[in-house]
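Example 3.2
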Amino acid sequence: MRKWIVIPDTNFLLIPGQFGVDIVSELHRVLDVKFEVLIPNVVLDELNVIERKVKGKDLIAVRMAKKLAEKFNIVEIGRFGEKPIDQQILEFALKTPNVIVCTNDKALKRKLRENGIPVVYLRQKKILELEGMLS
């Protein structure tokens, strides 16, 4: 059984702090495959930038996202600020076999699906759903 690589984008990591959803146990529920979550380096960079700009509930969500990200290995996919993070995630997904991207970004989701890449997203602010086949 091969292992899948799960790549969350920034907004996906903010879900636990924004909606109280345990994305790790939800990933285990929706993905009936062996997988490893890898955090793109540019996503961590973006969380650090956001952390300096927000306060209140948003700041708590960012700090929760960073704490969650610490549990996983980091994958270098590009350089922060070089091009949009969604573009870097898409390019990484296109050249990496067995990758699943976690995002709620509609444009990124559409591009991934057009290229046959499975996507996990938050539905009704409470459950994760998988779109696409894991074969």
